[in-house]
Amino acid sequence: SLYEHFRIIAARINQEQEIPPAYINTYTANVYNAADYGTVAAAYAAAVADTIITGGRAVVFIPVGTTNLGNTFTVSAQVDIVGVSRENSIINCEIVGGVAQGIIVTVGNFNIRDVHFYYASTSHTVGAALMIKASAQTISNVKTTNAYDAFSLGAGTLCGDICMDNILTFNTKNDSIRMENVIDVHGNRLYLQGQSSMTAGSGWHLIGNTEGSVFTNCSNIYGLKGINIDSSYDPPSRGSCAAFTYFIGCLFDTSG
After folding, report:
1. pLDDT in tens, 177-215
2. Using CA atoms, how far apart are residues 28 and 235, in angstroms rounded to an integer?
3. In angstroms, rounded to a whole number, what is the distance separating the alpha carbons of residues 245 and 210?
4. I want to staple 74 with a disulfide (CB 3.0 to 4.6 A). Which of 29, 104, 133, 232 is the partner?
């Protein structure tokens, strides 16, 4: 059957590419190797079709090596993105018309881990590697290189309960962590690096209602500001900017 066909392929992928053990028992017929589909976007489209049929979850697997992202796409179904490690599972992201291509998440309970978003240059003027616009997300062991904004949380859509752990951003052009109308973000071991010119960008850029977040054991070097609290975007109707937001055991080394 088609189900058995996918089960056998998934088992082979699990064995050869060493999908993290936590996923082996959860995903059997629901693993889509992005390398087999040419792009991460194409693998995601196939995975969505599977979730419609089975009513369950699926995973797009990023194997060792470099896989093209394709154009920006939106995760609106229960499909996780999992690699082997952030050093070895590389997602090559293009820049189209000055816009950095990336992934937009509009579904809750999304997980992404062990991947590396890579841009070949910093010729972009807008865009994020990962944009989160829904609650209850887990982002772990993820790296970005040469992103415009590395992680855009909220992006004007009120959401929260986002957990980030062991994150590395390198040579970010604008904001490593951009938070706009997002609450209850829990970050641990976020190592953020902007551009060495130190003339633009921030480690954290807090805009609008960004209450109740905690960051521990983090660092930010380079960039114009370590923490940019943008109160000009803080009308009373949108809550309090940076209220009850704590940085514990963090290091900042920026120009401002």
Report:
1. 999 989 999 999 999 999 988 888 899 999 888 888 999
2. 48
3. 8
4. 104
Q: Residue 172: how many CB atoms within 10 A of its CB?
A: 29
Least confident interval from 18-32, 46-60, 65-79, 126-140 = 18-32
**Measured between alpha carbons, how far is 101 from 133 in angstroms, rounded to an integer?**
16
How far is it, in rounded angstroms, from Cα 179 to Cα 153? Answer: 5
- Residue partners of 8: CB distance under 8 A and separation at least 6: none
Distance between CA atoms of residues 220 and 246, nearest Å: 15
pTM, to two decimals = 0.86
Per DSSP bridges, beta strands 128-132 and 149-153 are parallel
Instruction: For residue 62, give the nearest of 48, 79, 77, 43 by alpha carbon.
Output: 43
Query: 155: left (phi > 0), else alpha (psi -120 to 50), else beta?
Result: left
Predicted confidence (pLDDT) per residue in 231-250, tens digit: 654 444 445 677 788 999 99
Q: Report how far apart the first and last C-alpha atoms of the chain are (Å, whole number).
A: 61
Query: Strand 95-96 vs strand 99-100: parallel, antiparallel, or unpaired?
Result: antiparallel
DSSP-based three-state secondary structure for 94 = coil
Is the CB of residue 27 less than 8 Å from the CB of residue 10?
yes
